[in-house]
């Protein structure tokens, strides 16, 4: 869990430093958002690696999925289903405009555990 996250973010930090990147802006989705110790995770990462993680609210996570589809494809109307590790986002869009969205608190990892 946290050990793998810290190793991964440390690697990103080293690469960023090598290329003189001033800031990293990592975001966290359901895996950390649903964690009982999310505040401790964020605090530990900030103290040890000097990276501040922002937690994406579930409604924003659904929006980003819709946005990615409508800005990288020619699809104008559709329903998207983004199945993540800890959540599933469903969006409905028409004429490339978001009409409805919902985030469900289950994903591949959380369903596999049950």
Automatic annotation (TrEMBL):
SUPFAM superfamilies, alphabetized: Actin-like ATPase domain
Domain of life according to the entry: Bacteria
Ranges for domain Ppx/GppA phosphatase N-terminal: 7-114
A Pfam family assignment: Ppx-GppA
PANTHER family: EXOPOLYPHOSPHATASE, RETROGRADE REGULATION PROTEIN 2
Family note: Belongs to the GppA/Ppx family.
Name this protein carries in UniProt: Exopolyphosphatase
Higher taxonomy: Bacteria, Bacillati, Bacillota, Bacilli, Bacillales
């Amino acid at each position: 869990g946290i050990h793998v996250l810290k190793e991964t973010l440390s690697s990103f930090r080293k690469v960023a430093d090598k290329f003189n990147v001033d800031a990293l802006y990592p975001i966290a989705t359901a895996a950390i958002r649903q964690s009982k110790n999310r505040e401790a995770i964020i605090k530990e990462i900030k103290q040890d690696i000097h990276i501040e993680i922002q937690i994406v609210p579930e409604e924003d996570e659904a929006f980003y999925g819709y946005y990615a589809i409508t800005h990288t494809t020619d699809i104008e109307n559709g329903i998207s289903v983004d199945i993540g590790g800890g959540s599933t986002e469903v969006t409905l869009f028409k004429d490339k405009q978001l009409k409805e969205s919902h985030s469900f608190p289950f994903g591949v990892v959380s369903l596999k555990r049950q």
